[in-house]
Amino acid sequence: MPSTRTGPLGIPITVHVAMGRYAGRYAMVEQLDRLGLLGADTTYIHCCYFSEHEWQRVQDTGGKISIAPQVELQMGHGWPPVNKSVQFGLRPSLSIDVVTTVPGDMFTQIRAAFGAERARVNAVAWEQNAPVPESMLTARQMLEMATLNGAYVAGVEDRTGSLTPGKKADVVVLDARSLNVVRVIDPVTAVTLCADVSNVETVIVDGVVRKRDGKLVGDIDRARSLVEASRDHLLDAAAKARAQA
What is the pLDDT of residues 96-115, one digit of tens each? Predict the structure, then answer.
């Protein structure tokens, strides 16, 4: 049965584990397990080099999985373990890791995970001269990872993640008239394989419009100035550190 253990503050815990061959050798989940620190309040990020036992222990203790595919591929963490997590009955979500290195949108993560996993499975099937398995990822699974599974892993599935009566009014409206998705046949496939941020026409968060007619609503100039001020501060601090070295 999943553990009901919660941390002393009663808040979720997130840990980055098994990213890269060297990190995988340390078997961090095995170590946490020996210390009795696995539980349903923990989300494990990456998980590219989990052992079979580690996957099983995460499943046994009710842990959650989040995969950051673009970073995993780009930084050499390993193949995004989408199918592996599904095989163990887990509901993986998609995450970004660091927006200083990869785009912070779900479209990028959907296609990075989808393309990487299907490429990996196809390569194995080719080497074995065998047909691809029926467990090959689908576009619908990827959309679920970016919506329903994201809400589940974040612990807010009862409030958001789907257009369901009683949940918060969180809605993203895509323009299906744009040339990159026009003449939509399968909406799910159009979203997961063709759409991008330019198609996002309207965003509503808990009933409040945050993007309208393709433009963000709010004090965008202030947000931009804060980011630029942060950049300048970090560059100045780095320059001072180099000067003192």
Answer: 999 988 999 999 999 999 99
- Where along the chain do its domains lie? 1-160
Closest to 30 in 3D by CA, of 66, 72, 63, 58 = 58
Highest CATH level, class, for 1-160: alpha beta
Rounded to 10°, the helix 106-127/139-146 angle is 140
Angle at Cα 26 formed by Cα 22 and Cα 27, nearest 5°?
Answer: 120
Q: 127-164 burial, b if ≥16 CB within 10 A, otherwise e?
A: eeeeeeeeeebebebbbbbbbbbbbbbbeebeebbeee
Q: How confident is the model at residue 3 (pLDDT cuts 50, 70, 90)?
A: very low
Query: CB of 75 within 8 A of CB of 69?
Result: no
The model's pTM is 0.88
Band (pLDDT 50/70/90 cuts) for residue 6 is low
